[in-house]
Structures are given as C-alpha cells and as structure tokens.
Amino acid sequence: MWIESISLTNYRNYRTLNAEFSPGLNLFIGENAQGKTNFLEAIYFLSLTRSHRTRSDKELVHFNEVDLKLTGVVNRVNGKVSLDIILNGRGRTTKVNHLKQAKLSDYIGTMTVVLFAPEDLQLVKGAPALRRKFIDIDLGQIKPLYLSDLSNYNHILKQRNSYLKNSQTIDDTFLDVLDEQLVYYGTRVMEHRFDFVKDLEKEADKHHYSISNKIENLKLNYISSIKFTDNFDISVNFIEQLKTSRSRDIYKKNTGVGPHRDDLEFYINEINAIFGSQGQQRSLILSLKMAEIALFKKVTGDNPILLLDDVMSELDNNRQSQLLYNIISENVQTFITTTSLEHLKELPKNLKVFYVKNGSVRE
C-alpha cells in the first residue's frame, strides 16, 4: 500500500497544497515550525480521521477559516482508492471512492499507517492511557469490529458513570442491566486486545532479538483489572468483580474495573523495561514499530504506510540502519521529517525530497 498523492485545503498552516509521492522513501526537510509535522499529521488524519497531536478538530483548520478538506489517492494490492475528509460547521464527512461512509469502522482501515513520533519514546514510562491508545489505534485499523465494540463499551461506560454520579438513589436492578451490557462489550474488547498483544509480542520479540545482537528477549504483558487466565474466564470474572466493587463504585461515583483501566507492560530478559537503559527502551519502541508493520501485512495482506516524525536523530547509527533496512527490504512507503540529511545514512535510491518552508512545499 502507498499513497500516490494528497491535496490539502485550509489544513493547519497550509492554504492549499498538492503533492505526489514516491512509493519508497519521502523526505521532508526544513527548520522547526515550518509545517513538516503538519504534513505528516495530515496523512495520519486522512487515515484515522483524527490527529495524534490534538483532540480538537478546530485546531486543524487554517486561521480565520471555517472548513478544511483532505483528499488522497491510495494504491492498494486490490486497486486504487480515493479518500476524502471534509470538516465544516455541520460536522465531519468521510468518503471512500466518493461515497459517504456512515460509520467510522467503514472508513478506517482503508489506508493503514504506522506512526513513530517523539512521544512514542514515552510509551514505556508514560501513563497507561498512552499504551491503551497505542493498542486502540493499531487494532482499529486491522480489525474494524474492534472499533465498533470499543465504541459500544465506551457508550455504556459513560451511561453507567453518569448514573452513578447524578442519581440521588441507586436502583440496583437498573445497574444490573447496565452491568450486563458493559460486560458483554467489555469482554469482547478485552478478547480483541489479549489476542492482539500475543500476536504483537511474537513479531516484536523477533525484531528486538536481532537489534540487541541476539542477547535480549522482549515480552509483552497485558494487564487487566479483570483477573483472567484465558478468554473463557473474562465475562464470568468481569460480572463478579463488578458486583464486588459496586459499593466502591457508588461511593466513588465511577466504574473501577473494566478495559478502560487496562495497561501493557514490557519486559526485557524478564526485567520490567521501566528499569532498562534509554538505549534498551528505544530498541523496544523500534521493535514495536517493526512488529506493527509485519502484523499489519500479515492481517491485511498489504503493507502499512510508515510515518517517522523527527525521530531519526533520536536513534543511533545501528538503530537507524535497522529501521532503514526494514523499510527497504519490506518495501514500505515511508515519510520522514528532519531538519537535515546529515544524520541519515544508507538512503535508498527511490526517494523524493521535499523542502518545507512557512507552509509551502517544493520538491
């Protein structure tokens, strides 16, 4: 899979922009605050209908404008696909091949992306929400059903928390109904996540073993507030733990157990990666990104598009070489933002270089 072209209208600091890309490597060079990251964000947004930098769509619209439009042409193994996203005062419109998509799950997954940004280096030590987001974004792209189950779970969770917060007296029968629905969708969410983490671990361990010169193994541990040993235990244990924590939930006015509390742990040679060196943690993240590429291809039959936002300078020569080798050998279309070419070695021949300055791009 690769994106042939993109058109932006009123996106961030771009009034209008049309660009065509190499199916291999695409470099965006420029000083800071010129629009390099905005460009990669636009590709990410076209894929996932959301930004990785802000939750507010208003921040994406050019100053003093009220709407924006993104259009892209994607070349997939089964043919070309056109994508459109329009944001205006009436809301958001998404189209695939010029046909409006009623559901988000019908749109996401048409163009898959793997993003490696500076904030990913906080994945090991950062808050659990970062790791849940990491799982949600990946799973949502390769398994549309997951997005639907997660959306339904979040809807019921919001209902339950609102009821706990705003009710003067609690009707146990009504709470039982909400709990039954929460368990149904929550179990499905955890099953999806549990299976995904196992598959991701297999791929990530292979890459980490290679990057570490065959001296380190990587393990991923899915941590859930619902105690279970396999998928068959989840729903039974979930409903029991909701009953056990009901008095706590009523007192705290929120829901204390469920996949919204899940987390992910990383272990290098059986030691929690939190205690690893900075180099080990960077190798871990790089291994995860390589694993994402391999897993996306395995599930969808097509390579994702790789977005590297100002991270190459954060990697030493060995890790840069590993990443570039993976890009070349796996035939992955890649976009890299950087302030210079000095630290980039062993670049492939089929590349395009774009210079970015003050919201304009020239090849």
UniProtKB/TrEMBL annotation:
Annotated compartments: Cytoplasm
Entry superkingdom: Bacteria
HAMAP family, per database record: RecF
Record's keyword annotation contains DNA damage: yes
Function: The RecF protein is involved in DNA metabolism; it is required for DNA replication and normal SOS inducibility. RecF binds preferentially to single-stranded, linear DNA. It also seems to bind ATP.
UniProt family annotation: Belongs to the RecF family.
Keyword list, A-Z: ATP-binding, Cytoplasm, DNA damage, DNA repair, DNA replication, DNA-binding, Nucleotide-binding, SOS response
Residues reported in the UniProt entry to bind ATP: 30-37
Upper classification of the organism: Bacteria, Bacillati, Bacillota, Bacilli, Lactobacillales
Primary site of residence: cytoplasm
The RecF/RecN/SMC N-terminal domain, residue ranges: 3-360
Identification of the protein by name: DNA replication and repair protein RecF
CDD domains noted in UniProt: ABC_RecF (cd03242)
InterPro entries: DNA-binding_RecF (IPR001238), DNA-binding_RecF_CS (IPR018078), P-loop_NTPase (IPR027417), RecF/RecN/SMC_N (IPR003395), RecF_2 (IPR042174)
UniProt KW Iron-sulfur keyword: no
PANTHER family: DNA REPLICATION AND REPAIR PROTEIN RECF (PTHR32182:SF0)
